Every structure is written in C-alpha cells, then in structure tokens.
Amino acid sequence: MAAEQDIEFTPLQGMPATPFRIGGDDLSCALVVCGAEKDYPLIYVNEAFLACVGYSRTEFFEKTGGYYAAVIHPEDRERARAIVDEAAPEGRAFSAEYRVMKKDGGAVWLREAGRALLAGDGCLITVSVCRDLGREVALRERLKQRGRQLQDLMDALPCGICRVTADDSLSIIYANNYFYSMLNYTPGKAAERHLHSVEAFIHPRDMKMVRSTIRENIAQGRTFFELEHRFFDSAGKVLWALIRCRLDPEEPGYLTCVLFDITSRKRMEEDLRLSEEKSRIAFRHTGKVMAVYDPVGHILFQSEEDAAVLGVPPAMPGVPESFVTNGIVAEESVESFLRFYHSMQRGIPSGETNVKLKIADHFEWFSGRYTLIFDTEGNPRRSIISYENVTEQREKELAYQKWIQFFKTQQENSIGYYEFNLTKNIYEGNERRNSGSLPEDVKSFSETMEYIFSHYIYEEDLPAYQSIFDREKLLGKFYSGQREIHFEHRRFNADGSLYWASAGIQLVPDPLTNDVKAFILIKDIDAQKKKDLELRCLLELDALTGLLNRATVVERVTEMLRRSASGMEHALIMLDLDNFKLLNDSRGHQFGDEVLKSVADSLRDVLRRHDLCGRLGGDEFVVFLPHIPAGRELEKRLEALRGATAKDYGGGLSITGSLGLARFPLDGANFDELYRKADLALYEAKRRGRDRFVIYHPDLEE
Questions:
Q1: Strands 620-625, 612-617: parallel, antiparallel or unpaired by DSSP?
Q2: Is the CATH number of domain 157-268 3.30.450.20?
Q3: Secondary structure string (H, E, C) spanning 405-471
Q4: Is 340 in contact with 241 (CB distance < 8 Å)?
Q5: Peptide bond into 11 cis (omega under 30)
Q6: Phi-psi bin for 642: left (phi > 0), alpha (psi -120 to 50), beta?
Q7: pTM over 0.85
Q8: Torsion angle, CA of 527/530/531/532, rounded to 10 degrees?
Q9: Which of 121, 291, 339, 619 can pair with 580 through a Cys bridge, CB separation 3.0 to 4.6 Å?
C-alpha cells in the first residue's frame, strides 16, 4: 500500500498541472493517470510502471510523445481503446488486457483496472492500476497447448471413442480417428457417404438388441453399461466390438462410448468351445480337479468326491458368497476368491488365482484357473475351472538367498533390522542398534511385535501397525503372492520425541525347510516425510487465508459424502461477504487481503474439529458441517458463522455475511448438487437484504 499521506507529483514534461494530489510512487503496483481523450494524454505514471517497461520518466515521455496509447502494442491498441472509451464517459470501472512495448523492444502483458474520474479542474481523467500478466498469459497458452495435446491424444488412443445421441437414431456428434479406422474409413470418407449415425455401421441383426439395451439401461437410470455386438467395415467385413457406454446425468440426451475390437477374442472363444465331458476327461489325466461354474445362476458343479473334500454339496448354490459365509475361505484370501468368480460373472474370458481353503479342520492353498464358454450371442454360459492343492509347491520357492543378500546390504542404512521364521514363529536375528534393539528374552515374532507395539509405535498409528504385523495375515499375504510390504508410521525416540520411519517387510520361502521367512528393515525417513507433508499442505491450502483451497474442498467433501452411511445428515454452506468490494475499493487490496485473513481466523474459531472450511476465491467461502441434522443446533451453527463474519472498520465501512445452506442427502447426493442449491439459497439471502442465512427449499428453483 502507498503511504497514507498524499504525495505531490510533478506531471510529465509538457503536461498541464492539475489541482489534485496523487500518492503513487510508494505503490508496489503500476499506476497510470491519463486524460480521457484521444490517445490518452499522459498525466502521471509511477515508478513501478516505469520499472515494468524499463524507461526513465524522461525517456518514456520522449518515446510516447506524451500519449499513453503510443506505448500500447499496435495489435492490441484498438481493442483496449474500445474498452476504455465505452466505460469512461459513464464513469464506470473498466478492465482490459493488452501488451505494452518495453524499452528493450519486447512486450509485457498487463491487466489494466481503472475508472474515469473528474479532476479538480473539471477535466475527465482515467486512473488505472496495471498488473503484470506475463505468467498468467503463459499459463493460458500452455493450457491451450494441453487442449490441443488432449485432442491429439484422443485421436491417437488405440480404441474408438464417439459421442452419440441417446435415441433410436444414434446420430454421431463426435468420433475420433481410431473409430473410423476400426471400420476402415476416414472421417472424410464417412462424410462423403453421409454416414452420420452409428446405425450405418452396426450389423442389422444386432440393431434391435442394441436399441433395446440402450433403452433399458437409460430407463433404469444406469450411467455405465456395456454392449457386445457386430459391425460392418467399409469392405463389408464383420468385426466384433466391446462398447462401454456412459450416460452423463447432466446431459441425458447423449452417450459417450468407447469401442474395443474383440474380434480375435471371439474367434478364440469359438475355438475353445468344448463339451463339459471332454474337459473332465482331459483334466483327469493332468491330476487336477475340475469343476463347472454357471456364472448366471451362480452354481458350482463338481463330483461328489471332490465336493466332499471341501465339505460342500456337489451343486453348491450362491457361489462365491456362500463359500465365504460358510467359513471355507481364509480371511486373507476372501478378496482374491471373490474377484476370481466375479470375473467370470462379468464375462472376462479367463483368469487365475491362489486362495486358501478349509480342508477338514485346517486351511490349505489351492491354485485355480478358469476358461469361459460363451453362447452364440456372446454371453458367458459355463466356466470350466481347474484347481489343485499347491500348499507344498508354494513353500518351495527358491528366492531365499537373493533376498538374504539384499537385506544384508541394506542394514547399514537402517535403524533396525530383524529376521524371523514366520512359519515357526521364531526370532532369528537383529542388528541391536538404536531403536531397533530388543531384550535378550524376546524369542519369537509375536513377542517382538508386542514389545515394539508397547515401546516404539505412536498410538495413532498403532492399529494399522498391528494389522500389518499380524503373523497370520503376513503368511496369508505370502501365499496370495504378495512378498513385499512397506508401511510408513511414527515412532518414539529414546527422549520421547516422535519421528517418521518406514518399515519394509520381505517375505521369502526358505529353500531347505519351506518355512516362510520375514526380513524387516526399519529406516528413518523423518526429514523427507516432513518435506512431503509440508509440500502437501502447500498444495491443499489457500495461500492467502490458510483455509482449504477449492480443489481440496471439493475432493474432501466428495470423499466424506461417498463414505456416508445411511441416515447420516450433513450441511454444505456457501458464505459471501457483504460490502467487501466497497471496502476493498476504498481501503485497497492489501487491506482487503487482511480482512479476508481475519474472517478466515474468525470462521476457524467457531468451527468444530471435523468441520471443513475453504475459500473458493475472492470473498466466497464454503463450509461443510458433517453429522448435523436439521433443527436448532444447525441454526445455531449458522448464526455463529454469520456472527464470525461481522466486522466494523469505522468510517461507515463494515462487512457482514450472507449464507446459503443445502442439506445432504435431502437436497443432493454429491458436491455439485449441494453447491448449486446452496448457491441458490445464498442468492436469496442477498436478495432479502444480506446479513442473514437461508436454507434451500424447492421454491427457490422457480
């Protein structure tokens, strides 16, 4: 800000003196005062402006001849004039972006924000503040380039992408180059033949199915669905495509589709079509067990002998969920087991897994593979599954020495190193240094973990640490194929201070005993972790107020809404400062910035620990109150927020707050819906006289 007292200025050479005073050379931003006449006769420019263009005051006058228009880039001059000339006679504020020529022959982009005023001698003048837009303009150009690159990327993707009308005509709004190349066309060739609808490419026998599927999914409100059907290319050749469709709720009249050529897959499926009986005979010669799965009816069929091993009936219904609920699948294998069967239900042609299943009173490991058999319409009808007991095989992997050597070399950079036999629950070694030391009487993995839990691990990280360092779960991860685990956590130093550490776990089978070994390495990552956390904080917070920035608010509110359980109620509040622009214009932007910081501090003081508060930009804030039902408590919160914004700065300048509120789930299920309705309520609060809150109701839509 300029000094509060006015500073008498000397006009540029040849310019008439005017009976007013300007305090400008203390301003950090560029200030320009001109006559509101043709070519804008210069009255005053401050040192910040002269520094921006690289001229001395005398040089600048000589170069421009005393007219500001002379320094504006010729390509931008008329556009800038039009903006100023339209606003100046009416005394309105104006804003223009243009380039000015520098002394070195270059140009700098400026944003001029000004207003026409009447000087003491009755002359109309313009007073403007100019800001360097160089970085912003460069950023815009980069964004344009990114847009062009995105378009190029769309055209280069190895899949067809198109946007069509969601009706029976299926008219093409947009299609990338690959879409046409899949069908042996170019965009120009398709246009010449007037092929403006997807119907022109779809096999006639599939058209009825395509239309009915689209209608059904739209009627049921599905935003994502898939189709598989045939196309004709330009030469009349038939190809199969998988089409993944998205219906945008904001634009329900259009479908965005991604097409994948699956002709080769269809041919392979036809080649793999075998009778179930022939498959059984083939599997008997391999020593594996065969089962048949119905992905539509969710029934698993196997022989009575094989079913008895798992303790299930020969025709097991409700698979895979029934296996899980009956306790046949070990906890660490549930996810893999479900994913294996859900892949069949989704029509993925083949897959494999390793899972731990209960045999009598204990669990053993099984390796399974499947291949789907499709009907003539391309729908999955049966899955042929082969599986075998691989418990011994999985315990004989021979990577032991490799990882032993690797971890030996890593010990020098660690603060703790441990070796365990997980299978036998035995502690086998440790570099006894720093926080990695253990008492002599600790002999097992379980005892080691109990000691570490109680002596070194920060309480907030303890539940996650205990879950990861659970012996049974680690063994389960090993047999599921996960051999390497990393976990960041906080630990206590000897003096009680906290630091960040990384725990690296490597699970390796012993080649001689088949026992599972665990090598654990603890490293101090405190310095780097703190840098990472500081960087994350900078990326998530508004630089001026320290509140969350727009992107972070949207992300966190969206995540909280997504995780909300049934019956939870939340509130999204839009908050706007009344009279802030007047105060900002009267006292200056730096004072306005201090006001925004003060309001942010006041809002923090009245918010609860888990409430979210962010600045969307300017004097617009957003507040998210989780777990708060409608009623008196909510209204008290709104009053507290409104009161936190009320500030009197003297001289007739004060601000208050207007608030608009929308409720979850009553008024919307996502951020965009709640934001729109809270904004409507905010507008109504402004309309009613400001300094109040309004809760959204449907009448506001009218």
A1: antiparallel
A2: yes
A3: HHHHHHHHHCCEEEEEECCCCEEEEECCCHHHCCCCCCCCHHHHHHHHHHHCECHHHHHHHHHHCCH
A4: no
A5: no
A6: alpha
A7: no
A8: 120
A9: 619
Please name the fold of domain 30-137.
Answer: Beta-Lactamase (3.30.450)
Instruction: State the pairing for strand pair 315-316/516-524.
Output: unpaired
> Are 579 and 617 contacting, i.e. CB atoms less than 8 angstroms apart?
no
CA dihedral 549, 555, 557, 562 (to 10 degrees): 180
State how far the Cα of 641 lies from the Cα of 661, in Å rounded to an integer: 12
Supply the CATH classification number for the domain 541-701: 3.30.70.270
pLDDT at 20: 42
Write down the pLDDT at residue 465. 83
The angle formed by the CA atoms of residues 583, 49 and 596, to the nearest 5 degrees, is 25
581 Cβ neighbours under 8 A, 6+ residues apart: 619
Residue 14: predicted pLDDT = 42
End-to-end Cα separation, the chain, in angstroms: 45
Q: What are phi and psi of 330, to 5 degrees?
A: -65, 150
CATH number of 408-530: 3.30.450.20
| C-alpha–C-alpha distance, residues 313 and 306, integer Å | 10
pLDDT (0 to 100) of residue 434: 42
What torsion do the CA atoms of 432, 438, 441, 442 make, to the nearest 10 degrees?
A: -110
- Degrees to nearest 5, angle at CA 495 with 491 and 497: 45
Give me the sign of the Cα torsion angle 501, 502, 505, 506.
negative
Cα separation of 555 and 665, whole Å?
Answer: 18
pLDDT along the chain (702 residues), means of 10: 35 42 67 90 91 91 91 92 89 90 92 87 88 85 75 73 91 90 90 90 92 92 92 91 90 90 84 57 66 92 88 92 92 92 93 91 90 88 89 60 62 72 82 56 83 83 86 89 84 80 83 80 74 57 86 91 89 94 89 92 90 90 92 92 91 91 93 94 93 93 79
Class of domain 280-394: alpha beta
What's the CA gap between 83 and 91, in Å, rounded? 13
Of 590, 427, 619, 416, nearest in space to 518 by CA: 427
| 435 Ramachandran zone, left/alpha/beta (phi>0; psi -120 to 50) | alpha
d(CA 438, CA 584): 63
Tokens, residue 379: 């729908």
What the block records as the tokens of 407 is: 């971890």
Residue of 689, 676, 688, 684 whose CA lies nearest to 700 = 684
Where does CATH 3.30.450.20 sit in the chain?
Answer: 30-137, 157-268, 280-394, 408-530
Strand partners, 623: 573, 613
Q: Which residues contact 662 (CB under 8 A, 6 or more apart)?
A: 571, 572, 668, 673, 674, 675, 676, 677, 678, 681, 696
d(CA 328, CA 363) in angstroms, rounded, equals 8
The amino acid at residue 600 is A
Question: With 0-12 CB in 10 A as exposed, 13-18 as middle and 19+ as buried, what is 156?
Answer: exposed
DSSP secondary structure string for all residues of 267-294: HHHHHT---HHHHHHHHHTTT-EEEEEE
Q: In 2-102, where does DSSP find H-type helix?
A: 47-53, 57-64, 74-87
Q: Which residue, chain included where needed, has tokens 């630089």?
A: 543
